[in-house]
Amino acid sequence: MIQFPINNLDLTPFVSSPQRETPIYDLFAVGNHDGTLENGHYYAFTWNHESKNWFYFNDEDIKLIKNKDKIVSRGAYILFYSKTSNENFYRQSLSLPNYWPHVVAAASKTI
To answer: Is the distance from CB of 45 to CB of 29 less than 8 angstroms?
Structure first.
């Protein structure tokens, strides 16, 4: 069982350079797996930013999660976080560097 925060994951101790904003993140999805390596089942928990609710997705079954304590579970396989300062989700790309959450440093050498 791995414990992980749903809100306010602070990565400040792990960044190596100054950041534009404090690197604090909120969880918005969890991919879960139950079973063994040979035989198992995947399901997900996701946060709906507009309704401010968590949902459970399991094949065609979708349910509202009323108890957030169920999100931190033994089945948690992969965690998806978003910066708390982001109201909207933007696609990051090399052509849109302003959407990147980190400081873009100038190259020190030319190749």
So the answer is: yes
- Take residue 31 and report the two structure tokens written for it: 């991919």
**What are the residues whose beta carbons fall under 8 Å from the beta carbon of 62, sequence distance 6 or more?**
55, 56
Under 8 Å between Cβ of 27 and 73: no
Distance CA(56)–CA(63), nearest Å, equals 5
- Cβ burial, residue 27 (10 Å; 0-12/13-18/19+): buried
* Chain Cα centroid distance, residue 1: 18
pLDDT digits (tens, 9 = 90+) for 79-100: 999 988 665 555 556 666 665 5
- More confidently predicted of 31 and 96: 31
- The length of the chain in residues reads 111
Hey, what are 65's tokens?
């999660």
Lookup result for tokens 């050498």: 109
Instruction: Say what the pTM is.
Output: 0.72
